[in-house]
Amino acid sequence: MDLQIAAALVPLLGWAVHGGILTHRLAAARRDPLTGLHTRAGWTARAEHCIRRHPATAVLLVDLDHFKNLNDTHGHAAGDAALIATADRLRTWCGRHGTAGRLGGDEFVAVVRDPAAVNLDALTTALHRPLPYNGVSLPLAASVGVCRLAELPVPLLTDALAAADAAMYAAKGRGRRGSRLSR
């Protein structure tokens, strides 16, 4: 190979490798390392896209109940197992109808294109199923708040999250272990 051609190709190869590394890092930054769900940034981008394309979209906010007690009683590894199980259950429930994410701590979020295609009671049941862990059955519970974008005057993600948050806290106020639609 001509020396001049080789000298010209080396920087191009370097830039290609560098671009690949940056792409991989960006993708990794948009995934929660523990659960594999989208992080806030990754989920937000997908949710906003979903809202633009599907006017019947619903946004859900999920908060594990008594998570601190589970961590304090059974240890942080058990807490991690609970977070992973919750993520798996939420991801499975969303299926091909939506996208799940982890906002942080024990807070999860989901957006579904067609709320009629998914069963909210099935999600609540799944989130309340005990988790087998090291020979014991860990009790899991979650409060779920739901906002259907069609109920908002302007279908914005920030408003939907605020309404889902209020509905989630209303579910917690009813004694937890439930779900609530925004009103």
Automatic annotation (TrEMBL):
**Family annotation (Pfam families):** GGDEF
Tell me the leader sequence span. Answer: none
Describe the location of the GGDEF domain by residue ranges. 55-183
Reading the lineage from the top rank, the first entry is Bacteria
Q: Which NCBIfam families match?
A: GGDEF
Name listed for the protein in its UniProt record: GGDEF domain-containing protein
